[in-house]
Amino acid sequence: MRFFSNLPHHVITFKTKQINLYSLAGTTLFCSLFYLLGIYNHGGLTTTTTSLHHSTLPCLNPSQNTTTIHVTTPKPLDFTTRHSADLLLPLPPPAAARVPHLPRCNPRFADHTPCEDVARSLKFDRERNIYRERHCPGKGEALRCRIPAPFGYTTPFRWPASREAAWYANVPYKHLTVEKAGQNWVRFEGDRFRFPGGGTMFSRGADAYIDEIGRFINLGDGSVRTAIDTGCGVASWGAYLLSRNILTMSFAPRDSHEAQVQFALERGVPAMIGVLASIRLPYPSRAFDMAHCSRCLIPWGLNDGAYLIEFDRILRPGGYWILSGPPINWERHWKGWRRTKEDLKAEQDVIESIARRMCWKKLLQKGELAIWQKPTNHIHCKKNRKVFKEPRFCLAQDPDTAWYTKMETCLTPLPEVSDIKDIAGGQLAKWPERLTTIPPRILSGSLEGITVEDFEKDAELWKKRLATYKAYDHQLAEKGWYRNLLDMNSHLGGFAAVLIDDPVWVMNVMPVEAKVNTLGVIYERGLIGTYQNWCEAMSTYPRTYDFIHADSIFSLYKDRCDVEDILLEMDRILRPRGSIILRDDVDILSDIKSITDGLQWETRMADSEGGPHVREKLLFAVKMYWTSPTPAAADQQQGESKTAS
C-alpha cells in the first residue's frame, strides 16, 4: 500500500483503468469460449429453412411476392426441471413390450401359504400340534413365482355388505356349508356365500350371543376395545363386535375346516392363521382386553396349563377370558358331546384349578357360558405363592418377546405397583380417547429412546403424510374402496391412527428386527397387530389385503434377505387391483422399481411431503388384475407339465 501512495494520482488512475480493461477483455474471451464449447457439445449449429409468407408478416409490403428466408438458429437449450422424482429413473418400456421375468405359479398354488404348507407340516411332530405351527421353506425351497388368483376372481363386496356375503369364485370351498349346515356358519347361494352370523355355540346369531356377554361385561363404555378369538370359525364373533367399536384378532389353524380364516378375511374381518402349540402367540404382553373361546377344542388343562398361562400373558390387567361350550355345563350336555361325565368333569376341574392358581376370579357361569377376570395387579398373587407353588413367576424374561419364543409354564409378572387398588402398567383411557392419549408404556419411560414429545410429533407427522398419500392415491381418499390394510413397519401405529374414521382396519406389523419393540404401545392405543420377520412369509392367505403400506422396510432388511422375496410375498398377500405405497430412500426405491415391472405392477415415483430435495421418496404401485386360466386350460397346462417332466 505504501508503494501506491508514493505514485502521482493520474498514474494510479491510468494504471487502474488499464487493469480494468484487461479484466474485461479476459472475461469476454472466457465467456465466448465457454459459449462456443456449449454449442459444440449440443451438436453445433443446425440450419433450418423456414418459409415465411407475407400474410404472416404485417410489416412486409403486401404487394411483394412470398419471400423465403433462410434462418440459421442454434439448437434450443433444454430447461426441463431435473428435480422431478419420476425423472430419477429411466422411463419403463410400453406395457405391450414388458416381459415379466417372474413367472406365474401353477393354478394349484392359488391358496398357497408358504409357512403353513400342509405337505411340509406332515414332516413335523404331531404332539402338541407342533406340525400346525409355522414351518417355513428352507433356502432354495420357496416358490419363485407369482401366486395366481382363482379363475373368475372378483373384487370383494364393500364393507359392511362384505360382513354378510363373499363371492364363491374368490374362496371356492363348500366344505363348511355342509359340515356346519346346522350351525348357521355359512350358506352357499348361487354365485356367493352368505354368512347368517351364527356359530357352533350361538346358532341364534352372534349379535344375540354378544348381548348375553354384555349383560356381565360392559361392552359399551369403551373399557373393552381389543379382543382375541381362538378357533374363530368364520369370525362372526369378531365381525359383529366391530359395530360396538371392539376390534378383534381372530385366529385359527389351517386344518380340516378348509378356508375358515380365508372366509373371515374375505368378509373384511381381521384374522390370521395361528395355533396354540409350543410357541408363544405373536403378540406382546398385556395386549387384549378380552379373550374368547367358543367350542374351540383347545385342551386348556394339558401341558401344565401352558395354554391358559399364555393367555394370562397376553391379557391386560383386569382383562376377561370367556369360555363357552365343552366342558361348561357338562351336566346337561354330556350325551350330546359324546363324552363321559367323568371326562368332562375332570376337564373343567383342571381349568378351574389353573385359573385359581393364576389368581383369576370367576365372575359367573350361566348356561354354557363362563367368564373369568385377570387381577389388576399381582400384590395378592405373589403373597399366595406360599399356598400355590405352581405356576411360579417367570424370572429374567422379556414378556413382549414372541417370535418363535417357546411357551413357558411360569406366570408373567405384572409391572410393580405400590397399592392394591393400582392397575399394573398404568390405567388405559377408554375408547376413543385411548387412541390419542399418551400410552402408559411411553409415560413410564419403559421404551428406550421414545418420549412423550416423540409420540406427539409422530401424531402430527402422520396427519401430513396421510394428506400426501390421499392426494396421490384417490382410492385411499375414497372411503369404502379399501377395507383390509397392512402396515409392514408400524412404529407407534400412526398410520392406522389417522385412518380411524375410515371404514378400514389395519394390521400393524412390528418387524422383529426393529430397534425398539413398540407393538405393546400399538395395543395400548386400542389398535391390533403382530410380530413378523419379512424374510419369511406371513401367516395369512393369498389376497388378504386391499392395501399395503411399507415405511423403510427395504432399508431395514437391506443385506438381510433378498428384496425380490419380500416383493413376491407382498404380491402374494395383495389382492388384484390392490395398491401399495413404499416409502424409502430414492436409491432403494430405484432398485425396487426395476423389479416391480416383472410383478405386473403399475408404478410411479413421487416426492414425499419433504419435497424434491429430500432423499426419502414414495413409490406408488397397483397390482394389475390377472387370474388363473379357465379350469379346462389349467388342467391342460398341468397335463403338459407332467408330460414334459
UniProtKB/TrEMBL annotation:
Compartment(s) of residence: Endoplasmic reticulum membrane; Membrane
InterPro entries associated with the record: Put_SAM_MeTrfase, SAM-dependent_MTases_sf
GO molecular function, a single term: methyltransferase activity
Any Pfam family the entry gives: Methyltransf_29
TM spans (from-to): 21-40
Keywords of this entry: Glycoprotein, Membrane, Methyltransferase, Signal-anchor, Transferase, Transmembrane, Transmembrane helix
Family label: Belongs to the methyltransferase superfamily.
Protein name, entry field: Methyltransferase
